[in-house]
Design a protein that fits this description.
Layout (H helix, E strand, L loop, with lengths): L13 H5 L4 H21 L7 H4 L1 E4 L6 H9 L2 E6 L2 H13 L5 E5 L7 H8 L1 E6 L4 E4 L2 E4 L10 H8 L6 E6 L9 E8 L5 E8 L8 E5 L4 E4 L18 E5 L1 H5 L3 H8 L2 E4 L2 E4 L8 E12 L3 H7 L2 E8 L3 H13 L6 E8 L2 E7 L5
Parallel strand pairs: 1-2, 1-4, 2-3, 4-7, 8-10, 16-17
Antiparallel strand pairs: 5-6, 7-9, 8-9, 10-11, 12-14, 12-15, 13-14, 15-18, 17-18
Helix pairs in contact: 2-4
This protein binds S-adenosylmethionine.
């Protein structure tokens, strides 16, 4: 089945719709927050919370309400705040469509709210926030990676909420620089038209389980960086072995290549690839390639002809204009072949590979 941002019918204004959290992410986050709370309850007998019936959650900037609706299925009560009046009305309509009776909508700037009073009134134990990362800069709409440029300002929001509600989950850009006392969880999934998407989720308070983690959706496979254990070093290989495996962005951004190498019994080839003599499957691999050879620019065509190549996918550090020119030049010389072949440019050396998951 193709990718759908929303699995249910949902209304929205253009910006509200575009900046809403996709269902694949919001459903995973809600489940994950509950799991994290349940782990705490198990660890701490004093923390005698009945997860489903006692806990309230605040969605600090709810937009068109997609996450609030998902949260309402897992939590006893949801307080959903947004400073945009029209968008909040849309969120209310969306909640009505899904018959969510346990959401209280508040039209306000989050910083004008008395969090202490609200926390007592609705038994708020968790806070969620997905600040707006699309901002207008010099008259243009851009996506910011800077936590102080989001709306609301992510740093100010965390400082405002966590003294009262320490258990907080915040969505940020996967390219954001974050130096805060939280778990950094990178979540990757395949979006519209197969586009690779990655978000950084920050977990504070009792929601924090480790320093860094990486998750792939929809499988929900997770790798965590365990700081308490002695680090086992994954072997490295300067040469590619029989197969190379492209590592998912969430693992690369979380710098968990070592952990993935050990988990999959592969060697580290470089920052973005593992390698092995064996064919291995993992949800943390973006693509899997069989290595067909290594050559130079000079004997590339000759080698490509030998393996019946017709189309090439060029990878590596290469400028877009040069990329197009090089692809056209190569393919013009390969008119007899049939196969789609990947070539990886690394300085003067070119690695030739076949994607073993794609059928032509
Ligand atoms: C990325 S959207 C949230 C999307 C939401 N998670 C969803 O799924 O629909 C961010 C929202 O933050 C709201 N916002 C920005 N600054 C705010 C503030 N100071 N207080 C409350 N809401 C704010 C914006 O109006 C916008 O609707």
């Amino acid at each position: 089945m193709g990718y759908k941002k929303f699995l249910k019918k949902i209304e929205g204004d253009k910006i509200g719709y575009e900046s809403a959290t996709p269902d694949i992410v919001s459903n995973f986050l809600c489940e994950d927050i509950i799991k994290r709370l349940m782990d705490n309850a198990k660890d701490n007998i004093k923390d005698n919370i009945n997860i489903s019936s006692d806990i309230g959650v605040i969605d600090c900037c709810c937009g068109i309400g997609n996450v609030s609706i998902a949260l309402s299925k897992f939590f006893n009560f949801v307080v959903a705040v947004d400073k945009d009046k029209e968008r909040l009305k849309i969120a209310e309509r969306n909640a009505k469509i899904y018959n969510c009776k346990n959401i209280k909508f508040i039209h306000s700037d989050i910083f004008s709210i008395n969090i202490k009073d609200l926390k007592e009134k609705y038994n708020l134990n968790v806070a969620f926030a997905d600040p707006q990362r699309r901002i207008i800069k010099d008259g243009k709409i851009i996506r910011t990676n800077n936590l102080t440029e989001t709306s609301p300002n992510t740093i100010n929001l965390i400082n405002f909420i966590t003294p009262e509600i320490p258990n907080m989950c915040v969505l940020t850009s996967s390219n954001a620089e974050v130096n805060l006392p939280c778990e950094k969880e990178y979540v990757s999934w395949q979006g519209r038209k197969g586009k690779r998407e990655t978000l950084l989720v920050l977990y504070f308070g009792n929601l924090k389980k480790c320093e860094k983690s990486a998750v792939v959706l929809p499988s929900k496979d997770k790798i965590c960086k365990e700081t308490n254990f002695e680090k086992v070093e994954c072997e490295k290989s300067e040469k590619p072995l029989k197969y190379i495996y492209e590592i998912k962005d969430c693992v690369v951004k979380a710098e968990l290549q070592n952990e993935l190498g050990i988990l999959t019994k592969c060697k580290i080839f470089n920052e973005k690839f593992l390698t092995s003599e064996n064919e291995i499957k993992s949800n943390f691999f973006e693509n899997r390639f069989e290595v067909l050879g290594i050559c130079t620019q000079k004997n590339l065509i000759e080698n490509l002809k030998k393996i019946n190549a017709r189309k090439v996918v060029i990878r590596g550090k290469i400028m877009p204009e040069e990329h197009k020119k090089m692809k056209n030049e190569i393919e013009r010389k390969l008119d007899g072949g049939k196969e789609k072949i990947h070539i990886f440019i690394n300085g003067k050396k070119i690695l030739i590979g076949r994607n073993i998951d794609l059928k032509i």
